[in-house]
Amino acid sequence: MEAGEPVHATTSPALDLDDIQAGALYGRPSPYVGTYLLLCIRDRDDGRDLVRRLLRVVKPAGFPGSPDDTSVTVAFTYSGLKALGVPQGSLDSFAPEFQQGMASRAATLGDVGESAPEHWEWPLGTSDVHVAISVLSSDRAQLEAVAEKAREAHAELAGIDLIWRQDCYQLASGRTSFGFKDGIGQPGVEGSGRPAANPRERPLKAGEIILGYPDETGELPPMPSPEILGRNGTYVVFRKLHTRVAAYRSYLRARSRSRQEEALLGAKMVGRWQSGAPLSIAPDQDDTELGGDPRRNNDFGFADDPRGFKCPVGAHARRANPRDALDGEGSVDVRLHRMIRRGTNYGPMLPEGVIEDDGIDRGIIFVFAGAHPKRQFEFVKTQWLNDGIFIGAPLESDPLVGPHPESSTFTIPQRPIRRRLQDLPPFVVTRGGEYCFAPSLRALQWLAGLGVRDETPPREDA
């Protein structure tokens, strides 16, 4: 069999939770604070020493206690693996998108104009980004303690430079800078011990998220070689997005006769009310109790609303996850495009009611994890968010995050006459991004030059 060739699997082996980074698989506490660090490896030996030190603070998914505890996740870019001395044959075995990097994929992803790489925040999109570290915690004191351990891991190494830091947070309300509750519709993963947020959705096969296991096609997807490097790892998509909140609020207010209509128009664009209540269940007015109930706010589909009278077919949430709306179309299997999606805020919130831009940078850090970057993140971004062909509206993109060219529109089906919002400006601008790979703990040992060990490396309690 050729290296990287898919293998048909008839069984679903148990997830090796003691080898998978906890932060790559499990969710986050709510609320939380966090920080993202990007490092550059100037010296190979120091780079391997860095990995050896980071092993002390990375917890496996099988770590005793709550998976929502303070967590550290470590990932590498293609340039980072190369800087560590990974053999070229192994580098060539990674997914092409990962090898090329996000900046090289920008035109395909719709990152053009203001969102083009030449306007990205340095060092995002450059070959200087080698290591990405995220530290997240429900407690600021714990965050600082663990972040300090991560800093100590590189501070004494002259060949390692800290080149970028971004602090982030999630409010107790779980809302983003646009005011909508986020992080609601996560899929379940077989063997993770966590059910899907949607009770109507079966957990995904583990191979959709973690390499080395059968995916939804029943096959073992291509995996980086050697096996110790690829197995139990996952690809991580990292994007920093600036949100034009004032422009968004001004656009809605200018097209509404009342605050109630303004809230409805916003909900139609997103597919949910700000509380998180889905339009599919509460199409006419917000239901805060529904929005805050995790047992009900994901218990719905779109198949009973094919024309989008409750939730427009072009709404952001419906584009990002069509659920059962495409079940009748044999060429589309929504489950093949599902992935773990994490969003977090950066920058202060624009005060409620303000519609003038204060000039402060604010937005969302998005992280997507999955075993198939092309048919997961890139497919959803290009085919569902940027394009409207699959919903019969080829000239319309996602009203909230789409790359709006001139004369962008958004259609709201209603009786007797549909409403069409015209001239949508870009509400989101890409500030940069990276394709990363979060290796298993054994792979981290391998990268550190420690060799394959049976025992779990020592870790410090966080």
TrEMBL record:
Domain DyP dimeric alpha+beta barrel: 70-151
Name assigned to this protein: DyP dimeric alpha+beta barrel domain-containing protein
Biased composition (Basic and acidic residues): 292-304
A GO cellular-component term linked to this record: cytosol
Obligatory cofactor(s): heme b
SUPFAM superfamilies: Dimeric alpha+beta barrel
Protein's organism: Occultella aeris
Region Disordered: start-end pairs: 276-304
Family stated for the protein in its record: Belongs to the DyP-type peroxidase family.
